[in-house]
Amino acid sequence: MWRKRRLFRVAMLSTFAVVVIYYTTSQLRTIQKWRNRRKVGSAPRWEPVVLMNELQYVGTERDEDAFVRHAFNLSSSNLLPSDRALPDTRHTRCHDPSNYGELPLETTSVIVAFHNEARSALLRTVISVLNRTPSDLVEEVILLDDCSDNEEDGALLSSLPKVRVIRNQAREGLVRSRILGALEARGDFLMFLDSHCEVNVGWLEPLLERVTQNPQTVASPVIDVIDMDTFQYRPTSSQLKGGFDWSLHFKWVPLSHKQREQQTNPAEPFLSPAVAGGLFLVSRNWFRMLGMFDSGLHIWGGESLEISLKSWLCGGKVEVVPCSRVGHVFRRRHPYTFPRGNANTYLRNSKRVAEVWLGDHKRFFYEAQPNARMMDAGSLQEQHEVKSQLDCKPFQWYLENIFPELKLPNEENSAFGQLRQGSLCLQSVEESSAIKLAECSESEPSQHSWAFSVHTASIQHRKLCLTVHDRAKCPVLETCTQSYQQKWSRHGRAVVLLSSGQCLESGTTSEVRLSECRRGAVSQQWDFTVELQAQDDHPVNIT
Ligand SMILES: *[C@@H]1O[C@H](CO)[C@@H](O)[C@H](O)[C@H]1NC(C)=O
Known about the structure:
By secondary structure, the protein is of the alpha+beta class. It has helices at about 1-35, 55-60, 65-70, 75-80, 120-130, 150-155, 175-185, 205-215, 255-260, 285-290, 305-315, 340-355, 360-370, 380-390, 395-400; strands spanning about 110-115, 140-145, 165, 190-195, 195-200, 215-225, 235, 240-245, 250-255, 270, 280-285, 315-330, 415-420, 425-430, 435-440, 450-455, 460, 465, 475-480, 490, 495, 500-505, 510-515, 525-530. The protein folds into three domains: about 55-330, Spore Coat Polysaccharide Biosynthesis Protein SpsA, Chain A; about 340-400, ppGaNTase-T1 linker domain-like (Helicase, Ruva Protein, domain 3), CATH 1.10.8.460; about 415-530, Trefoil (Acidic Fibroblast Growth Factor, subunit A).
């Protein structure tokens, strides 16, 4: 009897033991799994990094003309520790890490190109990345020293964890330096940062989520302001997208009514026509497929517009991610030295972007930047190859679908630019109301800015209207009055004065006069450079 009971007890005990062991190991396994999982918003895996000889590193720089050299308050920057605390500027919805889902196992290379950056600003950029990014997400921080005067600015930081310093022995400019960084990168994602930034808490995870969901995304953080005088960190609106005008100058644009309606909360990522500046995350593969940045861009400028247009037109997209916040020192001027002058370099870079990506709409760029017409922008063959290889869409698609806010200039006009007949152009005669024909020239301002408006039935040259006085044969330019003497229409390529039904005709010399319309007469055929309402009903048909 007692033997039976003992046997029973042993059986019970061993069953219990088995259950306990099984339960414990399974719990341990779960815990292990949890540990291995990329937990979003978790504390950094190492103690916050502080450079041991930080004061020594920063303190060696004493420059009386610091404001001139860096275009920001150097002493204000130097007084701040590299690991200073920042206000969390995110929307409260961003605080919940479960919003970002599972993070990728792939890593990110952070690429920071710099030239003569203030040491304290550069160091704070690096330290903020190391302290505010889960370690296993960061492959490396590539510091690309674009031939700074003092090699040690970068070299001294190579002892920091994950930091790789690469130095150009000759100046390449920021654009080519970033390309070099991208070529060196081992991570699957590339994050481009400026050298005077501070990333904020949880900055990388929401960007990674977007790029993981769609690998053809260029994802931009919201760029907060670090005051250049006081280095105070201030939030900016998270509801602005990046855009530009016809000069190809970047500008902020509020979200469209439709975008605001579609948005369920302000923490949601939204589509943006362009990224602001050089701060964005992109998959390395997609970046390479896009041909990286155009390596023909000199020094700085135009590259963020280029990558944005390329991305949109060639099958990808650009997004702003409000839950990702990065502070940036905005300066009044660019301290980066341009060997060929700041404005010229920028214009030349913009011309390259316009020539490759704007298609026929580049004419609007030249209307806004007439000085770019004569500029030599170098060979664009490689860029055109990328464009045809990836079978990129025309700019018109971008205008209609991605950036409808970019209005065509003088939209009430149906045609504008030069008013030409063959190789001859109509031009105003200085100090008089007369007009004449002359050989067309891109650089002759008196030949540009003609416009025909269907609404007012007028032909304008700048502020003046093409006028034919009663019984006179030659048109002149006069103040616009809306009188019948200034009403014109176009029939095919003929330009007709409505009141008399007569046609504008070129004479044997440089004169222009009115005469009876004759069908097919070459001397009565006129073309504007830009036709916005062509006969065949295409919305834009530029010849
Ligand atoms: C620069 O920073 C220093 C130290 O914070 C401050 O005393 C000074 O007023 C600042 N200069 C300007 C022009 O803001």
